[in-house]
User: What shape does this take?
Amino acid sequence: MARWEPNARERLVRAAVELFAKQGYEATTVNEIAERAGGLTKTTFFRHFADKREVLFAGQEIHGRIVAEAIAEAPASATPLEMVGLALDALAASFTQDRREIGRRLRAVIAHSAELQERSASKRVALSEAMADALRTHGISELAADLAAELGARAFYEAFDRWTSSADPRTLLEYARVVFDELKTAVSVLE
Amino acid sequence: MARWEPNARERLVRAAVELFAKQGYEATTVNEIAERAGGLTKTTFFRHFADKREVLFAGQEIHGRIVAEAIAEAPASATPLEMVGLALDALAASFTQDRREIGRRLRAVIAHSAELQERSASKRVALSEAMADALRTHGISELAADLAAELGARAFYEAFDRWTSSADPRTLLEYARVVFDELKTAVSVLE
DNA sequence: AAGGTGATGTTACTTGGTAACATCACGGTA
DNA sequence: TACCGTGATGTTACCAAGTAACATCACCTT
Assistant: This one.
């Protein structure tokens, strides 16, 4: 038999989500999480996650890579918004329907903690910057890239919100497309 | 003679900025800041600021009030972007030229710390939401309000950046107008 | 059989942040 | 003049996040 059970990282995430949901983020200590994740310790927790918040956001680096890749593969003739549309599609499509329950719980936990909302906002900025970088590499001008990327990030987070709030069985991809269309319409109403 | 020198809060801010600039945010302890601010203690620091980061951002609640008021006073016939333009003008005009040096130092300090950038992003979201709320109150639809507010916040932060980066004597208001115009132009290039 | 590797634990420490209680100049009031 | 309440501060003691250095020990390779 192995000395340690495998998948410590996953177990830590599960334990953290459960404890945060039950008793709140601030009332949960890292020691508790580690202990519940199969008798681990604080030290091990911090070997896997940079800080206590990060246990809920780890793995999101891949989102940046997905959107960057989608934009890199877009035809050079596409408009900025078309490129962002492709990125959004790729990102949303990477969420299978069974991740919705996890997303639901995550959203609830984050909604109760200012500290987690701050980190969430920070991740959103990172996603937006990944898209903006890719757009600039594709020849889009500075400000236009920033704006288009912001639109994409906004669409993704709004779609995620609706996806995890509602009970009907639509996919995240469907929500993303709806929201993105709404946003494009809203842009034309600004002025 | 008074038992305590007055203006403890200001002294704490000054001490913090100086120490952060000299030795970095993370290498500076709250005790150090309090000590340098005239022999105060940690306890007093936390009576004035909710946490260590906040010492650099305290006082920004007023920004939200400024933009909200400007939008509230805008004519109902104005477009969302016109309302945001008024809000931006009011906010930028509230920065006198002598605050530029402080802004410069602030920007440098924040640029060196991920933790401070996170808080800064959070403050930016707050500013954007203050504008969006005011716009909705003024009858603007949900998404359009969000987008217009985002545009305004983006313009303000970009203008602040240019203002504190450059040596020429233009006011923040001038920068804000230039950036806002550029952003509006960029919007029309998206598609 | 020996030695290296990797994920973990142990111990000890610093610092951010909180809570409860103590101090004492000041300003007013009797 | 003597007293009292108040407000900003200090003191002490504590908890929890996060770091560093070193120890352990199953497993794999040679």
Remarks:
- Chain A has nine helices and no strands.
